[in-house]
Design brief:
The complex is a heterodimer of chains A (325) and B (557). Chain A has 12 helices and no strands. With 325 residues, chain A is mainly α. Chain B has a 5-stranded mixed β-sheet, covered by helices on one side. Chain B has a 5-stranded mixed β-sheet with strand order 14-13-15-12-16, sandwiched between helices. A 4-stranded antiparallel β-sheet of chain B has the order 4-5-7-6, covered by helices on one side. Chain B has 2 domains: 244 residues, Roll (Dipeptide-binding Protein, domain 3); 200 residues, D-Maltodextrin-Binding Protein, domain 2 (3-Layer(aba) Sandwich). In chain B, 29% of the residues lie in helices and 20% in strands. In chain B, strand 8 and strand 9 form a beta hairpin. Classes of the chains: A mainly alpha (325), B alpha+beta (557).
């Protein structure tokens, strides 16, 4: 196990290093830079001359070789210096820390909804296969997986405004400042963000559970007179969980991506919106930092899931060729 | 049930309409019906309601805009469009201010009075005795000198953008002198009628020397950094969410502002901004497209829609250094291809004009505008355009690439332009580019033909003509370089007789229009919806930027 973990951590470090190289190069391949981007934000008489653009680039250090710039950024990263935003001049970490907390809260609440809702609905639907409840759950799953999130989100905002005159408060309050207001701002977006992953997890969980329910050991458990609840949540759940975990891991990354759209519609100041804005402004330090953080999250979620496989079913032996990285 | 279905249906269509649209610096939208905003001469519905009971103190005014302010140092040009000016201007002051309705009418601000020497070169400004910064310390002439000096010689890495015309009058910081704490003199290089107008531009805001110099770089970029002398001061902000300011008790007008606080809400989605207005979460929403404006039709008891002419418009611009637009016949054919009346119908309104904003003091006479190439009978002009193309060697028409910004608003304008050009056999392939990529592409001179929109901050010849039409001007994307135009631009700037100057500006307009390099096909309408409880709101006149201090606005019960 230790050897396996070491190899996985080494592979994760290599992945992250590759991410730093790819992101660093890619953002510089994009046409324009922070100086041109700034003048492009205001159509009118604000364009800069070529001389001013060159002077601005020099002031930001963008006139140096790409290897020199990369080396400096990597050195700063290793010494835990996230750099400074090209737009605000403030430390990237101090700018993004509050944004990360918003997105983490949003995705965490969505993840709880997905996990609890998806497993429960999947198992209950499987146990009542063919019933009205099963049909309703399957229909819901199909609908939730098919309709785009931004459409549902916009539709809901307009409906709430038109029918009930209700609008989710705009000024964001952190959970530690005003929990009630924060709940108003986070819950509905989290539910909408969760819909598609919830639908997928429900379908996978249902399919796995139907398969497990038809096995001999479940029939034996029932024959022993165990309660349906015990059969479902002790025996079926454990065995149906492995394929669902794979889906769940992929959906966590999807949640982070979906947060970009949801944050825009519901005015949440999270990293999704910050990343889109940073790309528009060619704010390289912010783009690089956020991409790295998201990659870090994806790498460790996958690592965590591999470990969870083993924890749930010790028969699965961790090897260096285990799933993904 | 019927009401339910109707609401559901209307919400569905609104969603589709809004999903297809987005507002930027100005707003019309292709494809909307030609609502009652189609005028050939500017007129606007800007009358602001007043209450017989007079102004009322207190309350929080909430304004929704799509994005965060980029920088409150609006004197420097790092991306400071209206989304920076609007939430920052209430915290700032200038030496003098331009009237929002007529930018050549100047009113006092930090300077309570001013005079000019007999030779027209030395301007003396007397400061108000009670002008104070938000921290209570007095505003002095050295603060004013510091603020003007940095426009003339910007600190490293910063650039005077829309404030830059000031440097065209004052070539050295030695010409700006703080004579005493309450007196400032500025000696300009030559007598210039537009100097005071450009000094009154909102972008020439005044910052405290001692505090700004301590910042690195010396620039009040962030909202929370701002110590200004405007009617409101910083209270709290969360980037990506909101910016709140509260009443400044040190404001030089002791009875103003009426409001207790002012909040700018950041709401990226146009649909959500409209919903915020309908629910009362926002009192004012900046910039709507025509479909969005139409969606408010049922709320006229609660929301007043202000439609006014904008000092901005839409054009196609040809690169004169590239084939086929190095041939004046082809450029003239492009100009003649456009039906300005179709534009007014298709773009949800607009105005006819030459190269200075229509309706303003510098606009070409409407009668003369109606005789300019491109404003004649559509069919005969298009027939003439086809002849010109044939004479230029394109009897079967020609194919060109047209670039535009990729946001829905810009793309829809470009699609309109493509359709118009096709009427004379010009097959334009539309290539939308992301905003920054577009700016890089154009600033490198890679373009052949672009569809472009502009919004001017100041309706003044010195603020517009050198940047857009003089040789090497930063916004002269066609690369127009004409000695006579340059000479006249210089001449009008030095002309102090208003009538003679207007004649010079008119002549420049004729020459520029005849060059067919930057073809304006529609001057825009701006739509600003405001809650009926908002009183004495000045929507800013033709400019999207001037008059946004909100000190005289108040809220009815």
């Amino acid at each position: 196990m230790n050897n396996y973990l070491f190899k996985r951590l080494a592979l994760s470090a290599l992945t992250l290093w590759l991410v730093t190289v790819v992101v660093f190069v890619l953002v510089r391949v994009l046409p324009g830079d922070a100086i041109v981007a700034a003048s492009a934000q205001s159509p009118g008489e604000s364009s800069l001359t070529r001389a001013e653009i060159e002077a601005g680039r020099a002031a930001l250090g963008l006139d140096r070789g790409i290897v020199v710039q990369y080396g400096e950024w990597l050195g700063d990263l290793i010494s835990l210096n996230s750099g400074e935003s090209f737009v605000t001049g403030k430390s990237v970490w101090s700018e993004m820390r509050p944004r990360l907390s918003v997105t983490l809260e949003l995705t965490l609440v969505a993840l709880i909804i997905v996990t609890v809702g998806g497993t429960t609905l999947g198992i209950l639907s499987a146990s009542a296969e063919g019933s009205r409840f099963d049909v309703a759950v399957r229909s819901f799953s199909l609908l939730a997986a098919s309709v785009p999130q931004f459409w549902i989100a916009l539709f809901l905002v307009i409906i709430m405004a038109s029918w009930w005159g209700y609008f989710i408060p705009v000024e964001y309050s952190h959970v530690w400042d005003d929990p009630a207001r924060n709940a108003q701002q986070i819950l509905i977006p989290a539910v909408i963000l969760a819909l598609r992953p919830l639908a997928l997890l429900t379908r996978v969980m249902r399919a796995s559970s139907v398969e497990v329910l038809s096995t001999d050991y479940i029939r034996a458990a029932r024959a022993r007179g165990l309660l349906t609840r015990t059969v479902l949540f002790r025996h079926v759940l454990n065995n149906a969980l492995i394929p669902s975990l794979t889906v769940l891991a992929a959906q966590v990354v999807f949640l982070l991506g979906g947060a970009v759209v949801i944050e825009s519609v519901f005015n949440l100041p999270g990293v999704g919106r910050a990343l889109v804005q940073a790309i528009s402004f060619r704010d390289y330090p912010i783009i690089q930092f956020l991409t790295l953080v998201i990659a870090l999250g994806a790498v460790f979620i996958n690592l965590g899931v591999d470990i969870l496989y083993w924890a749930i079913d010790p028969r699965i032996k961790p090897t260096s060729t285990a799933r993904g990285s | 049930m019927r009401k339910f279905s109707l609401t559901l249906l209307s919400s569905f269509f609104l969603l589709i309409l809004i999903a297809c649209s987005s507002a930027e610096d100005q707003a019309p939208q292709v494809g909307s019906s030609g609502i009652p905003v189609s005028q050939t001469s500017p007129a606007s519905d800007v009358s602001s309601p007043q209450s017989p009971d007079g102004p009322r103190y207190g309350g929080n005014l909430r304004i929704a805009q799509p994005g965060d302010p980029v920088s409150c140092d609006i004197a420097m040009s790092r991306g400071v469009g209206y989304q920076s000016v609007h939430p920052c201007n209430p915290m700032l002051s200038q030496i003098v201010r331009a009237s929002s309705a007529d930018h050549s009418t100047i009113t006092p601000d930090l300077a309570e009075s001013w005079s000019v020497s007999d030779d027209g070169r030395t301007w003396t400004f007397k400061l108000r005795p009670n002008a104070r910064w938000h921290d209570g310390s007095p505003v002095t002439a050295s603060d004013l000198k510091f603020s003007i000096d940095r426009v003339i010689e910007p600190p490293e890495g910063l650039f005077a953008g829309r404030a830059a015309p000031i440097a065209g009058y004052v070539s050295s910081t030695a010409q700006v002198v703080a004579v005493s704490d309450d007196t400032l003199t500025i000696t300009i290089d030559f007598p210039a009628a537009s100097f005071i107008t450009n000094l009154a531009n909102v972008y020439v805001s005044i910052f405290p020397k001692a505090i700004t110099e301590q910042l690195d770089p010396p620039s009040m970029v962030l909202h929370e950094d701002v110590i200004g002398s405007g009617p409101f001061k910083f209270s709290s902000a969360t980037r990506g969410s909101f910016y709140e300011m509260v009443k400044n008790d040190y404001y030089y007008e002791p009875d103003l502002p009426y409001l207790d606080s002012l909040t700018f809400l950041v709401i990226p989605s146009p649909a959500v901004r409209v919903a915020a207005l309908k629910t009362g979460e926002a009192d004012i929403v900046m910039l709507l497209t025509e479909p969005e404006a139409e969606s408010l039709a049922g709320d006229s008891d609660r929301i007043r829609l202000i439609r006014e002419p904008s000092a901005g418009g839409n054009s196609v611009q040809m690169n004169l250094a590239k084939t086929p637009f190095d041939d004046p016949r082809v450029r003239r054919a492009v100009n003649l291809a456009f039906s300005r009346s179709d534009a007014i119908l298709a773009l949800g309104g607009g105005f006819d004009g030459a190269i200075m904003p229509p309706g303003g003091p510098w606009a070409l006479d409407p009668d003369e505008v109606s005789r300019l190439p491109g404003y004649g009978n559509d069919e005969s002009e298009r027939s003439r355009a086809r002849e010109l193309l044939a004479n230029a060697g394109y009897p079967n028409g020609l194919r060109v690439q047209m670039h535009s910004r990729s946001d829905p608003f810009s793309t829809s304008l470009a699609e309109f332009a493509v359709a118009q050009l096709s009427q004379v056999g010009i097959d334009a392939e539309l290539i939308p580019l992301e905003r920054t990529a577009y700016a890089e592409f154009v600033s490198n001179g890679q373009h052949t033909l672009i569809s472009h929109s502009h919004s001017f901050s100041l309706d003044d010849p010195d603020a517009i003509l050198p940047a857009h039409y003089a040789c090497g001007g930063a916004e002269n994307f066609p690369g127009l370089c004409d000695e006579e135009i340059d000479r006249l631009i210089e001449l009008q700037s030095r002309e102090t007789d208003p009538r003679t100057r207007k004649q010079l500006v008119d002549e420049i307009q004729r020459l520029v229009w005849a060059a067919d390099a930057k073809v304006w096909f529609n001057w825009s309408v701006r739509r600003t919806p405001v809650s009926v409880k908002v009183m004495n709101f000045d929507p800013g006149g033709p400019s999207l930027y001037q008059g946004r201090r909100f000190e005289s606005v108040w809220l009815a019960e």
